[in-house]
Amino acid sequence: xxxxxxxxxxxxxxxxxxxxxxxxxxxxxxxxxxxxxxxxxxxxxxxxxxxxxx
Length: 54
Fold this sequence. Notes:
With about 55 residues, the protein is an all-alpha fold.
């Protein structure tokens, strides 16, 4: 019984650590998106560029 409890505890602890890392990544991505939204320069779409003349 103790072995099963220890295994379950290990899995729960690992999942909690993964969730913490994912939350940190999500926060960083949100901050990056906010920075891009506030940027003064409009985003350049490569499809909007005119092709070079031959």
